[in-house]
Write a structure and sequence with these properties.
Elements: H1 2-7, E1 15-19, E2 40-44, H2 46-56, H3 60-75, H4 83-97
Antiparallel strand pairs: 1-2
Length: about 100
């Protein structure tokens, strides 16, 4: 199970993000030699997305979009560890999903 392997959590998850961005803000603005900025990887569980789509009463396509945006926001440095950060992340997600 990928969640156990990378996060030490022995439970399924809907989305995991792996940032490839440098931790230093100075390095983040250096253009790679090939000119392609790789942000990272996003792994989405289709099974969980399908279950959640049913649970939330919308399409699997919509759920996959929401999970993708959620994962991308994590790659860009957003998190939801406290209510304030969660509110910022939710606002960003809503903006991007319009």
């Amino acid at each position: 199970m990928i969640n156990r392997q990378y996060r030490g959590i022995d439970a399924p998850t809907d989305v995991l993000s792996f940032s490839a961005l440098p931790s230093s803000s100075e390095e983040a603005f250096v253009t790679p030699p090939d000119g392609i900025l790789r942000l990272g990887d996003i792994v989405i569980s289709y099974e969980r997305a399908s279950d959640q789509a049913t649970e939330f009463g919308h399409s699997v396509r919509q759920e996959l979009g929401e999970l993708f945006v959620h994962g991308l926001l994590h790659i860009l440095g957003y998190d939801h560890e406290n209510p304030s950060d969660a509110a910022v992340m939710a606002d960003k997600a809503e903006t991007y999903l319009r």
